[in-house]
C-alpha cells in the first residue's frame, strides 16, 4: 500500500470514529434587546418642569387642529404635583392639554400620544406651554410610578439612570399588567433584570444631573 493510500485510509477511519478535528467558529452569542430612552440630559434641558404627579381629573372636549380647523378631541389633564426635580418650584396643580380623548361615546386617540387615566401616577418631563404636546418626546418623557417604583411607559422597570439615558429591564412585564406604550429607542445588550428604582432615587439623580 502506497503512502498516499495509507493517508487516505487513516483519514477515512478518523471521520468514521468522529475523531477528525475541525476548526469551526463558535456560534454567535445571542443577545436580548436593551431599551434606552433619550439621554436624560437632553430631556432635562428641553423640559421646564420635571414632576412626579398624580392624575386627578381627565376631561375630554371638542376642538380643532391646524389652520384647516380639522375637528378633533382634546383631553384636559389635572395633575397634582407630589415631587419634582425642576430648577424652580412647580405649581401644586398642573393643567395640561393633550391631543386625543373621549367625549360621550365618541373617542379619538392619537398614535404615539400620551394616554393617561384618572389615578395614574407619573414622572413626567413637561413643557406646559407646548399644548397639545406638553410631554417632551411624548411617551419617551413619561414614566409610570407604581408603588413608588419607576417604570417606562411600556411597563419595563427602570434599573439605572445616568447622563446617557436609562437602563430598562428585559423582558417586558406580562401582558395585561400595564398598557403597551411606545416611544423608546432600541439597542442591543445582554438581558437585564432587577427591581425598579424608587421614585425618590430617580428624582435625586435627576436633580444632580440637572445641576451638573
Percent helix: 10-25%
Low-confidence stretches: 7-35, 174-191
Number of domains: 1
How many β-strand stretches?
12
State which percent range the strand residues make up. Answer: 35-45%
Q: Characterize the main sheet.
A: 6 strands, antiparallel
What's the end-to-end separation, in Å? Answer: 82 Å
Number of helices: 3
Mean pLDDT across residues: 77
Characterise the protein shown here.
By secondary structure, the protein is of the alpha+beta class. It has one domain (29-211). Helices cover 17% and strands 37% of the residues. It has helices spanning 3-17, 40-46, 199-211; strands spanning 32-36, 49-65, 70-84, 93-99, 101-103, 106-108, 121-126, 142-146, 149-152, 158-162, 165-168, 185-189. Strands 4-3-2-7-8-9 form a 6-stranded antiparallel sheet. A hairpin with a 2-residue loop joins strand 10 (158-162) and strand 11 (165-168). The model is unreliable at 7-35 and 174-191 (pLDDT under 50).
Describe how the helices and strands are arranged.
Elements: H1 3-17, E1 32-36, H2 40-46, E2 49-65, E3 70-84, E4 93-99, E5 101-103, E6 106-108, E7 121-126, E8 142-146, E9 149-152, E10 158-162, E11 165-168, E12 185-189, H3 199-211
Antiparallel strand pairs: 1-12, 2-3, 2-7, 3-4, 5-6, 7-8, 8-9, 10-11
Which key features would you list for this structure?
212 residues; alpha+beta; six-stranded antiparallel β-sheet; 17% helix
Describe the structure in brief.
With 212 residues, the protein is of the alpha+beta class. It is built from three helices and twelve strands, in the order αβαβββββββββββα.
Amino acid at each position: 500500500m502506497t503512502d498516499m493510500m495509507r493517508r487516505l485510509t487513516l483519514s477515512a477511519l478518523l471521520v468514521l470514529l468522529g475523531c477528525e478535528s475541525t476548526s469551526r467558529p463558535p456560534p454567535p452569542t445571542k443577545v436580548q434587546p436593551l431599551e434606552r430612552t433619550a439621554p436624560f440630559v437632553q430631556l432635562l434641558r428641553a423640559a421646564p418642569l420635571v414632576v412626579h404627579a398624580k392624575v386627578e381629573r381627565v376631561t375630554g372636549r371638542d376642538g380643532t387642529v391646524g389652520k384647516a380647523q380639522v375637528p378633533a378631541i382634546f383631553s384636559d389633564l389635572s395633575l397634582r404635583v407630589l415631587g419634582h426635580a425642576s430648577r424652580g418650584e412647580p405649581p401644586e396643580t398642573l393643567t395640561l392639554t393633550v391631543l386625543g380623548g373621549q367625549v360621550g361615546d365618541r373617542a379619538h386617540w392619537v398614535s404615539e400620544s400620551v394616554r393617561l387615566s384618572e389615578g395614574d401616577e407619573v414622572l413626567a418631563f413637561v413643557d406646559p406651554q407646548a399644548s397639545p404636546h406638553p410631554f417632551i418626546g411624548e411617551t419617551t418623557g413619561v414614566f409610570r410610578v407604581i408603588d413608588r417604583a419607576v417604570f417606562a411607559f411600556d411597563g419595563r422597570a427602570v434599573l439605572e439612570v445616568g447622563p446617557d439615558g436609562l437602563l430598562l429591564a428585559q423582558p417586558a412585564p406580562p401582558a395585561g399588567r400595564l398598557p403597551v406604550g411606545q416611544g423608546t429607542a432600541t439597542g442591543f445588550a445582554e438581558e437585564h433584570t432587577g427591581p425598579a428604582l424608587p421614585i425618590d432615587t430617580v428624582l435625586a439623580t435627576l436633580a444632580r444631573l440637572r445641576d451638573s
